[in-house]
Amino acid sequence: MKAVVIAFWIYLETVITGQKSCDEWKKFEDYCYMRSCTNASFSDAHMYCTDQGGDLTSISTEEEFLYIASILQDTKRVRGWIGLRRRYNQWRWTDGTWLDTTEFTQNYLDEWAQKGSCVYMRTTPSGRKKLFGESCEELLNFVCRKRDC
Fold this sequence. Notes:
Elements: H1 2-17, E1 26-28, E2 31-35, H2 42-51, E3 55-56, H3 62-72, E4 78-87, E5 90-93, H4 106-115, E6 118-123, E7 129-134, E8 141-146
Parallel strand pairs: 4-8
Antiparallel strand pairs: 1-2, 2-8, 3-8, 4-5, 4-6, 6-7
Helix pairs in contact: 1-3
């Protein structure tokens, strides 16, 4: 039900404004989130988020995953960095927490590892959403997260 409400809210925002808002912090549950208006490498995106008092977003629940996907959802396919990176063959969020592998299957980790060490979320206008690995130098949108707006 919560996912339906989130999707409807994003749909209304897009219909009313004609576009997705970016570079604006929006509260969802315990955190505030912001989609970038510009593209950046993973490290530049991470630096931008920390300069704003946050970090690239980590994901700990399905609701959070769906909310982040809704932020990136647009009239075209969008790819946006999240804060997951592989270092020394271990996946870790940029906020310092380790990836809880019960959230994601080993197949996802293998798929990510084939292409790159940094992870992005891809969304399509039809509502598909998935995580992929990419070279950390690729220039993509990104989503920041922080405690207070």
